[in-house]
Amino acid sequence: MKNPLAHLMQQAQRFQESFQKTQEEIAATEIQGESGGGLVKIRMTGKREVLKVDIDPSLLREEREVLEDLIAAAFNDGVRRVAKLKQEKMAALTGGLGIPPGFNMPF
């Protein structure tokens, strides 16, 4: 091998590019969180920015606290789904690197 350090630097550069691309894909992905059997839906990006809240009209007759709880539950469902997506994408990216499970990448 001509220069092992140069080869290592090229690998690091390729990983950094793949990492950046994966971050952009996650950020652009839209996720939907739900609660109340789909009566409340929240659509958000992979950056956890809420795009749309959809509330079934039948819930508008419910007490305020019930609606608030369903909205919070739908938001939390969306956040969990974003975390799962991020974990799956990063696991695919870092598969052969020996990074310990649960290690959070910086984003």
Automatic annotation (TrEMBL):
Gene Ontology molecular function, alphabetical: DNA binding
Cellular location(s): Cytoplasm, Nucleoid
Highest taxon of source: Bacteria
SUPFAM superfamilies referenced in this protein's UniProt entry, alphabetically: YbaB-like
UniProt cross-references to Pfam families, sorted A to Z: YbaB_DNA_bd
Any coiled-coil regions, as ranges: 5-32
Major subcellular site: cytoplasm
InterPro entries associated with the record: YbaB-like_sf, YbaB/EbfC
Keyword DNA-binding: yes
Key words, A-Z: Coiled coil, Cytoplasm, DNA-binding
CC terms in the record's Gene Ontology section: bacterial nucleoid; cytosol
Complex and partners: Homodimer.
HAMAP family: DNA_YbaB_EbfC (MF_00274)
Similarity field: Belongs to the YbaB/EbfC family.
Known role: Binds to DNA and alters its conformation. May be involved in regulation of gene expression, nucleoid organization and DNA protection.
Protein name, as recorded: Nucleoid-associated protein GNH96_11075
Organism per entry: Methylococcus geothermalis
